[in-house]
Amino acid sequence: MAGKQTGTQLRVGRLTKAHGLKGALKLELYTDDPERRFTPGAIFSLQVPPTSKWHGKNLELKELRWYNGHPVGFFVGVDDRDEAESLVKAILWVDADDDPGEDDAWYDHQLVGLTVLRDGAEVGRVARVDHLPAQDLLAIETPRGEVLVPFVSAIVPEVDVAAGTLTVTPPAGLFEDLPDEE
Predict the structure, then answer these.
(1) Which CATH number characterizes residue 151's domain?
(2) pLDDT for residue 5
(3) What pLDDT, on the 0 to 100 scale, is given for residue 181?
């Protein structure tokens, strides 16, 4: 991960493609609160390949605009399409230390290792969090192998980091085989 690290970082977005000729970039947001995170002057650490001229640098937001419901960012020092193209696929990170937090949002390191409970009984432990475009998935190690659980409130109604537990209410068949219907 490029940029200054002062502890835990939170992934907040990805630059997906150049927009127009003045250096703007379309964004894929990984936050429920873009108005707070993407304010003028916000500084992002960049995750880019080591060969990128942006490796080890930060990016400062000038402005976030919305076009047809899609967020578009304008950044300091990115003044033309060629510069914008050089940032496509970069992932934006912020220091978690500077982050006041969101309700119902956790860092991956807070979830990994939690005991997973179903109806009060332990069914496994969170091994990792997979971030996919549609939703995040929790990879849960169980005695029968890994189970991927959509990280949505309907299936994961409670996360108690202090207690070290995460409660699941999965649909039938997610953690066990269903009997074959004759």
Answers:
(1) 2.30.30.240
(2) 38
(3) 62
Chain mean position to CA 79: 27
> Is this structure's pTM higher than 0.70?
no
Cα 137 from Cα 128, distance rounded (Å): 9
Question: 38-44 — which CB contacts under 8 Å span 24+ positions?
Answer: 38/12, 38/13, 38/64, 38/71, 38/73, 39/64, 42/94, 43/94, 44/3, 44/12, 44/13, 44/92, 44/93, 44/94
Last residue of a domain, one of 98, 118, 140: 98
- Any domain includes 114: yes
Coil, helix or strand at residue 83: helix
State pLDDT tens for residues 143-166.
999 999 999 888 999 999 889 999
Please report the pLDDT score of residue 167 as a whole number: 94
Taking a C-beta distance cutoff of 8 angstroms, is the pair 8, 107 a contact?
yes
Q: What does DSSP say about strands 115-118 and 165-167: parallel, antiparallel, or unpaired?
A: parallel
- Name 166's bridge partners: 116, 159
Same domain, 91 and 137: no
